[in-house]
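Whiteboard transcription, Tuesday session. T.W. wrote the structure tokens on the left side:
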């Protein structure tokens, strides 16, 4: 395995681009192979057997392409499958989880809101993260801290269709975000990688609240793992600092012109969407 190989990043849809964006910003010399399972999304309201079946296919594609690491840029996929694939594969597998601990650490009002998919909130992995954060807060914070979980069916789909300001989106935000704001949440965890693309709209419904996006932390963890294995793309005088960007590749199940348009709105006008057979 060489450092010139791409980093595989997967998601049920285009939300994982928020993580890919953080990876691109932190490591401009790396190549990204992004795999979105758009035709079979959303994962967030599916049962675990369905999600595992899809992950088998997407990860099979990425390993066939000889990626040097795989980033699960999907909270639901991480909650359901990351442990299995870490045990099975020898390359670094980086997951993502709702950033409850930073929220609990920094809340001033003692109220944290978590926006996530139904499957993420119901998962054992999230329950463990939540419990550890609250146990820490019980002995380390001067006030009582509570975490309010908010499943958000339908919100991910808004990003998938490029909807960042419709009446339907506003109705969903009123349903999911407004109750957290009324409860006094001053830290709101974006527990799905699609939600950073709705940050401005969410902030309008939770004025003054701090939104937490875990993507930069995921990029840092990826960098640590690659550095440990001497797999970071090399820097040299004859290699442009942003050499990886020109080689970025975006694939999706169900790729079509409409989805390519959404990709370009999220990543850039020159992005091209290629089909993913998985």
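and on the right, the sequence the group agreed on:
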């Amino acid at each position: 395995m060489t450092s010139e190989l791409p980093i595989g990043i997967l998601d049920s849809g285009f939300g994982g681009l928020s993580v890919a964006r953080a990876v691109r910003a932190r490591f401009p010399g790396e190549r990204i192979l992004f795999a979105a399972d758009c035709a079979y999304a959303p994962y967030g309201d599916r049962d675990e057997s369905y999600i595992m079946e899809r992950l088998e296919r997407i990860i099979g594609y990425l390993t066939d392409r000889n990626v040097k690491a795989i980033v699960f840029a999907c909270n639901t996929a991480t909650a359901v499958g990351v442990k299995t694939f870490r045990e099975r594969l020898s390359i670094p597998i980086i997951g993502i989880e709702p950033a409850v601990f930073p929220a609990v650490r920094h809340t001033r009002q003692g109220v944290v809101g978590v926006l996530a998919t139904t499957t993420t909130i119901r998962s054992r992995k999230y329950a463990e993260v939540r419990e550890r954060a609250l146990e820490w807060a019980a002995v380390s914070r001067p006030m009582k801290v509570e975490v309010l979980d908010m499943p958000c069916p339908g919100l991910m789909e808004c990003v998938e269709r490029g909807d960042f300001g419709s009446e339907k989106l506003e109705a969903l935000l009123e349903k999911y975000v407004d109750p957290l704001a009324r409860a006094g949440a001053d830290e709101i965890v974006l527990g799905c990688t699609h939600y950073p693309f709705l940050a401005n709209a969410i902030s309008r419904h939770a004025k003054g609240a701090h939104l937490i996006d875990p993507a930069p932390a995921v990029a840092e963890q990826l960098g640590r793992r690659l550095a440990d294995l001497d797999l970071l793309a090399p820097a040299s005088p004859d290699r442009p600092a942003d050499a990886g960007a020109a080689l970025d590749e975006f694939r999706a199940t169900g790729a079509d012109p409409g989805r390519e348009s959404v990709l370009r709105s999220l990543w850039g006008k020159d992005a091209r969407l290629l089909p993913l057979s998985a």
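Someone added at the bottom: The beta strands are 7-11, 32-36, 69-72, 93-94, 111-116, 146-151, 187-190, 210-212, 249-252, 273-275.
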